[in-house]
C-alpha cells in the first residue's frame, strides 16, 4: 500500500492521515496509524498481513516489517478523550524479531511519551533482550501517561534510534497496546 501524492510524487515516509483512520479499539493502535520515517519505501519497510492465529492472539491484522534502516523514527498521536480521566496507562510496542535480526545490540533505542505539550518523558529500550527470542511477539514497555481530570488532550509517542549510523533490521512492528496501569 503506497502513498502517492496528487502530483504522482511518492513520499518515502509513511504519514498517517488520522482523519481517515478508523480505530475501533482504543487499546490496540495498529502500525498503519503511525508516522514511519522511510516507511513508504519498500527498500526499508514492508507491510504484511499477520497470520490469523497470531492475529487473534495479539489483536493486530497487519504489521510493518523493518528490513533495514540506520535512522529509526516511528511516531504516533492519540486523542485522550477516549480514555478514562484520572487513570494512568502504560504504552507497549508489540514487536517481534526475525531470526536474522541485526544491529540491535549497538543501537540505543529510546521511546518518548508526551501529554498535552508538556515536557516529554524519555525511556531507554533494550531491544536486544527481545531479539534473542526470535519469531515471538513481545510487548516492549514504551512509557506511561496519565489522562488529566479534564479528560482531553493529545498523547504523542515515539520510538527512535537516530543517534548512531548503525544499520538495524528484521523487526516486525504490529502496533501499540495501551493498558491501564495496575
What would you note in describing this structure?
The protein is 6% helix and 43% strand. By secondary structure, the protein is mainly beta. The strands form two sheets. Strands 1, 3, 4, 6, 9 and 11 form a six-stranded antiparallel β-sheet that branches. Strands 2-5-10-7-8 form a five-stranded antiparallel β-sheet, with no helix packed on it. The longest helix is centred in the N-terminal third of the chain and has 7 residues. The radius of gyration is 16 Å and the shape is globular. 34% of the residues are buried. The mean pLDDT is 89.
CATH class: Mainly Beta
Gross morphology = globular
Briefly note the CATH topology name: Jelly Rolls
Fourth CATH level, the homologous superfamily: Galactose-binding domain-like
Could you give the count of β-strands? Answer: 11
The count of helical stretches stands at: 2
Amino acid at each position: 500500500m503506497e502513498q502517492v501524492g496528487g502530483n504522482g510524487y511518492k513520499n518515502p515516509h509513511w504519514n498517517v492521515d488520522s482523519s481517515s483512520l478508523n480505530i475501533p479499539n482504543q487499546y490496540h493502535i495498529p502500525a498503519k496509524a503511525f508516522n514511519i520515517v522511510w516507511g513508504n519505501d519498500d527498500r526499508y519497510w514492508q507491510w504484511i498481513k499477520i497470520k490469523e492465529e497470531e492475529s487473534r492472539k495479539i489483536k493486530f491484522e497487519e504489521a510493518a516489517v523493518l528490513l533495514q534502516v540506520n535512522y529509526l523514527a516511528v511516531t504516533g498521536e492519540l486523542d485522550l478523550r477516549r480514555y478514562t480521566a484520572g487513570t494512568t496507562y502504560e504504552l507497549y510496542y508489540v514487536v517481534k524479531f526475525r531470526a536474522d535480526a541485526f544491529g540491535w545490540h549497538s543501537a540505543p533505542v529510546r521511546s518518548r511519551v508526551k501529554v498535552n505539550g508538556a515536557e516529554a518523558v524519555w525511556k531507554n529500550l533494550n531491544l536486544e533482550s527481545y531479539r534473542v527470542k526470535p519469531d515471538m511477539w513481545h510487548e516492549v514497555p514504551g512509557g506511561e501517561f496519565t489522562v488529566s481530570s479534564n479528560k482531553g488532550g493529545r498523547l504523542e509517542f515515539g520510538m527512535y534510534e537516530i543517534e548512531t549510523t548503525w544499520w538495524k533490521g528484521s523487526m516486525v512492528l504490529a502496533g501499540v497496546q495501551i493498558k491501564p496501569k495496575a
